Amino acid sequence: MMVVYEWNNPSTLGPLDTGGKVLGSVFHAVQPRTAGFSTIDVAGMRQETLFSQVILMFIGGGSAGTAGGIKVTTAAILVVLVVAEVRGNPDVTVGRRRIATETQRQAVGIAIVGLVAVEVFPTEEQQPHYAEKMLAARKAQEALEVIHDASQRRGLGLRLKTDPSGSRLIGEVLSPITSGSGSLVSKQTTVNPNFAAVVVQWLKELRIKSGDVVAIGVSGSFPAMNASVYAAIHELGIEPIIISSTAASQWGANDPNFTWLDMEAALRRNEVFPYKSVAASLGGVGDDAIGLSKRGRQMLERAIERNKIPALADIEPEERPAEENVEEADEPAPSLALVDQGRVRERMRVYYEAAGDRPIKAYVNVGGGTVSVGTKVGKKKFNAGVNARPPKGIEDMPPSVLGAFLESGVPGIH
Q1: pTM reported for the whole predicted model
Q2: What are the pLDDT digits (tens) for 89-107?
Q3: Taking a C-beta distance cutoff of 8 angstroms, is the pair 272, 258 a contact?
Q4: Helix H or strand E encompassing 224
């Protein structure tokens, strides 16, 4: 059924090569009976495919397995029973063996009980913070639609082969402001407003509440995930301090005329979010677009200028009087001695100057920027999701903003 109905469906198997289509079909013929995993967008499946998936879920796995459903043997007995009735055979046989009447009754009884249980006793189990998660997911969906419409109005191209859902949040494989390699699957996966609910869960785990100040680092590499983070903090009433990296990796927001900063501005104009980055960097290698052409650097600089966001390199340290009652501070200021990289120190200074006397309760990083999480060696040390304390061996890791916050006692989300 998957092969027949989904082969050319642009929302599911359509964009895949022949091997991917066959593998996806086989996987989705097995997964409804057991684990329930998905490698393609189930919401994009045709009705005929969904009907077949429901049947597979109802049947479930084998008799000796732990999968649910009425079991394969029960379904098989029902099939041969129906065939015998249609043919008018007095006995139900498989090969030369007769199926006992008692076994037939058991199979029919199990099927009827299963149908009744499904129809009469549906269950709905809500996750903790369900209402806030739903609001955040809906807000993220609104944000994604606004970005889609803004891209369409600008006349930007739509590539269904790499962006099968037509989100317009999947960029080019290469452009003048592309900072490095990227994973197409990762970019496609993040175009899902439900990630906002995941971010809500993580923030709740850190006991972040309305009115708390949270430092946020985003880049052009994952615009959809940026929107989900904004949606989560918006619905929770959190006060963000945002620094954006303008460049983007492959398939990110790498159109020079529609960078992440332009998307952020579109979200403000349409009153989806009131947020504006307090500063922006060129992004890319070293947070300074190392390796990009002169033309690419100029495009990034123009994007920062047209959105009227201070460039990190242009921000002067704020002259602040010394605190008279240091012992009464809510929490200690970060030890910048722990950070021996100029770009990291610069970001930390901007965050804490923007926060003023308010304590920063958490740091949220989106993407894999070298300044935010360090080089590849550093990235592997941080957990995906909540990081409550520094990882082991952080003293030997490349300096990063996430590491600096963790060493200062501020938890992070990666």
Answers
A1: 0.74
A2: 888 888 888 999 899 899 9
A3: no
A4: helix 223-235
| CA pseudo-torsion sign 131, 137, 141, 147 | positive
Which three-class secondary structure state does DSSP give residue 45? Answer: coil
Contact, 14 vs 8, CB < 8 A? yes
Categorize the per-residue pLDDT at 230 as very low, low, confident or very high, splitting at 50, 70 and 90: very high
Chain-centroid distance of CA 90 in Å reads 58
State the helix-helix crossing angle for 260-269 and 223-235, rounded to 10 degrees.
40
The C-alpha atoms of residue 355 and residue 365 are separated, in whole angstroms, by 17
308: left (phi over 0), alpha (psi -120 to 50) or beta: left
- Backbone torsion region of residue 170, taken as left when φ is above 0, otherwise alpha when ψ lies between -120 and 50, otherwise beta: beta
Residue 95 CB burial class (10 angstroms; 0-12, 13-18, ≥19): exposed
Could you tell me what percent of the chain has a pLDDT over 90? 55
pLDDT at 30 over 90: no
Q: How many CA atoms lie within 13 A of 175 on its CB side?
A: 25
Q: What is the mean pLDDT of the chain?
A: 88
d(CA 52, CA 58): 10
